[in-house]
Amino acid sequence: MTSLELAKKAAHLLDEKKGERVNVIEIQEISSLADYFVLATGTSNTHVRALADELEEKLKAQGAGQPRTEGYRSNSWVLLDWGNVVVHVFTQEGREFYDLDRLWADGKMIDWQQGEEG
C-alpha cells in the first residue's frame, strides 16, 4: 500500500466513524517528517480515542502495520504515526489550538474522496 493509499484509507475510515473536518495534506515536498498528514476532529475526548482506536485496528488489519502512538493520555489530541503517514485526531479545542491546517498550509490539500474508498 502506498503512502497516498494509506492516507486516503485513513481519511475514509475517520469519515465513516463520524470524524469531522477530515483533511489530507501532502507534505513530502516541504518536510522530511512524512509524506502525508491526515487531520480529523472528534466531538469529544471519548470520540477522539474511539476514532484513533478504530483507525489503528482497521488499518492494521489491512496490512498497514502497528503505528507509533502518542497522546492517548491527553484530553485533546491523539497521534498515530505510520512513518510516511501521520494521523492527528483532535478535539475541536485541540485542533484550534495547534492549528496544523494553517501551519501546513504550504502543503498540498488532497481530495481524498476521489478514487477508491477504504
TrEMBL record:
Q: Where in the cell is it found?
A: Cytoplasm
Q: Quaternary state and partners of this protein?
A: Interacts with ribosomal protein uL14 (rplN).
Keywords tagged on the record: Cytoplasm, Repressor, Translation regulation
Gene Ontology cellular component annotations, sorted alphabetically:
cytoplasm
Function statement: Functions as a ribosomal silencing factor. Interacts with ribosomal protein uL14 (rplN), blocking formation of intersubunit bridge B8. Prevents association of the 30S and 50S ribosomal subunits and the formation of functional ribosomes, thus repressing translation.
Source gene? Answer: rsfS
Species of the source: Candidatus Acutalibacter pullistercoris
The cross-references to InterPro entries, in alphabetical order and at most eight, read: Iojap/RsfS/C7orf30 (IPR004394), NT_sf (IPR043519)
- Return one Gene Ontology term, BP aspect: negative regulation of translation
Q: What is this protein called?
A: Ribosomal silencing factor RsfS
In the record, the note on similarity to other proteins reads:
Belongs to the Iojap/RsfS family.
